[in-house]
Design brief:
CATH topology of the largest domain: D-amino Acid Aminotransferase, Chain A, domain 1
CATH superfamily of the largest domain: ATP-grasp fold, B domain
Shape: globular
Strand content: 15-25%
Number of strands: 13
Length: about 350
C-alpha cells in the first residue's frame, strides 16, 4: 500500500487532542469522528495532517500549495457556520485540482435541499413522503394531499438539528407553532412532510460508479413507550443518558420480509445514483407494518466515527475500520472529477 500525504479537513473547533486518555465519552463525542479518522489513517501508515477550517479558504489553499497532499479527507460539515456551504468548499477543492474523499459538490447540493431531492426521487417514481415547503418568514398553507400527523423539519440542516418529539404535529395550531419555532431558532426554510409510522432503517453505500451496499441497519427504541413516536430526534442521536433511558440502539435489521434486503439494496442504489452521490453515503428509510418502504433522505459523508452505524455496518460484512478508511481514500483518488480529463 502506497504511503499517502493526507490532509484531513475539519472544523477548527473540532481538531482533536493527541490523546483521549482520561476523557469521558461525553467529552470526546463532539470530535470523536475526527479523532478516529486521524488515528485510523496514521495506523495505516499515511502521513496525516489535520487542518482546522472555519471561515477562511486561505488556510486550505496554503496547505495544498505548500504541502501538496495526495488527497484531502473531508470531514467538514459547514463553512461560515452554514451547513449547505460545505458543497462550495468541495467545489473549491475541485478548482484547486485537489483529490478529496466523499461526495462531489452536486451530490451535496441535491442532498442538502430535502425538497429538491424529494422532487427528483418522485420523478424517478421512488416512494418518498409527501411534503410542503414553508419559506423563512412565510406562514404555512397545508395542501389538501397532506394530512396529520406531520413532521416539521429544517429544509437544509443535518444531524437531526431541530428535530424533537414536538416535531410531530397533529393539529393546525401545533403545526403553526412548530414551523415558527424552526424559523426562529434555525433561521432556515421548513419542510413539513407526511409522518410514516414504521421501522427506522439505514443503508450505507460505498462507491462512485460501482456501488456496494452494506448490511441494512435499524434503530430500535427498546424501552420507549409505544405512544411516543419512534423518530431519530437530536436527543436520540446525541444524548447518551436519553439513549440509555429509552434503550435506543442500532444494529443489523432482523426479520425483514422475504426479499426485502435485495429490494431495499436495489432501491438505495437507485437513490444514490439519481441524487448524484459519490464516495460514501447513508440512505434513511421507513418501512411500514405492511412492508412498504419510503425513502426519507440521503446523507452524503455520514458520521465515520468508530462504533457508529456506518463503520458498524461495514464491519458486519467484513470491512474493518482501517480498511474502510482506505477504501474511502481509494474512492476519492479514483473519482473522475472533470479537471482530470484536462490533464
Amino acid at each position: 500500500m502506497k504511503k499517502l500525504r493526507v490532509i484531513v479537513l475539519m472544523h477548527e473547533d473540532l481538531v482533536p487532542p493527541k490523546s483521549i486518555d482520561g476523557l469521558t465519552d461525553e467529552a470526546i463525542q463532539p470530535w470523536k469522528s475526527e479523532y478516529d479518522v486521524l488515528a485510523g489513517l496514521e495506523h495505516l501508515g499515511h502521513d496525516v495532517r489535520p487542518l482546522g477550517v472555519s471561515s477562511d479558504l486561505g488556510v486550505m489553499r496554503d496547505a495544498i500549495v505548500e504541502w501538496k497532499p495526495d488527497i484531502a479527507f473531508n470531514l467538514l460539515e459547514e463553512f461560515h457556520g452554514i451547513s449547505v456551504y460545505d458543497q462550495h468548499v468541495i467545489s473549491y477543492l475541485e478548482l484547486m485540482r485537489q483529490p478529496y474523499t466523499g461526495c462531489n459538490p452536486r451530490g451535496l447540493m441535491l442532498a442538502h435541499d430535502k425538497a429538491l431531492s424529494k422532487k427528483i426521487m418522485a420523478y424517478h417514481r421512488i416512494l418518498t413522503p409527501k411534503f410542503v415547503v414553508v419559506p423563512l418568514g412565510s406562514t404555512v398553507k397545508l395542501p389538501h394531499q397532506l394530512s396529520y400527523p406531520l413532521v416539521v423539519k429544517s429544509l437544509t440542516e443535518e444531524a437531526s438539528l431541530g428535530i424533537a418529539q414536538a416535531s410531530i404535529v397533529t393539529s393546525e395550531a401545533r403545526l403553526k407553532e412548530r414551523v415558527a419555532f424552526v424559523h426562529e431558532q434555525l433561521k432556515t426554510d421548513v419542510i413539513v412532510e407526511q409522518y410514516i409510522e414504521g421501522r427506522e432503517l439505514y443503508v450505507s453505500i460505498l462507491g462512485s460508479l460501482r456501488l456496494q451496499t452494506l448490511p441494512i441497519w435499524e434503530m430500535l427504541f427498546t424501552k420507549m413507550p409505544e405512544q411516543i413516536p419512534h423518530i431519530a430526534t437530536a436527543k436520540v442521536k446525541w444524548d447518551f443518558k436519553y439513549q440509555k433511558k429509552h434503550g435506543i440502539i442500532t444494529q443489523a435489521a432482523k426479520d425483514l420480509p422475504p426479499g426485502a434486503e435485495t429490494q431495499i439494496a436495489r432501491l438505495c442504489k437507485r437513490v444514490y445514483r439519481v441524487l448524484n452521490q459519490s464516495g460514501y453515503s447513508r440512505i434513511d428509510l421507513r418501512m411500514t407494518a405492511e412492508g412498504q418502504v419510503y425513502v426519507l433522505e440521503a446523507n452524503p459523508n455520514p458520521n465515520l466515527a468508530y462504533g457508529e452505524d456506518f463503520a458498524e455496518s461495514a464491519e458486519a460484512c467484513g470491512i474493518k475500520y482501517e480498511p474502510l478508511l482506505q477504501r474511502i481514500l481509494n474512492l476519492g483518488l479514483a473519482y473522475p472529477a472533470a479537471w482530470k480529463a484536462q490533464l
